[in-house]
Amino acid sequence: MSAEPAGRDPPPLLDWRDASHWSHQQKPCRYCGGLTNLRDSKRKPSHKVCAEAALAQQAAEQADAYHNEGHLG
Question: What is the pTM of this model?
């Protein structure tokens, strides 16, 4: 079992190099409202930073819920 080295960020959940994350049409980001050509994994308009922040928030909320239900510690 190998552990992630301390101080390193976990790998990204989305591979933004994939062409499916790009559209020629700009639309408002689903999170901040600014125009973007990028699309998230659900093909919704989203800046990379906004989508990754939302995924990190969701993961943190799920981890908190898991911990609060007594599954950890």
Answer: 0.68
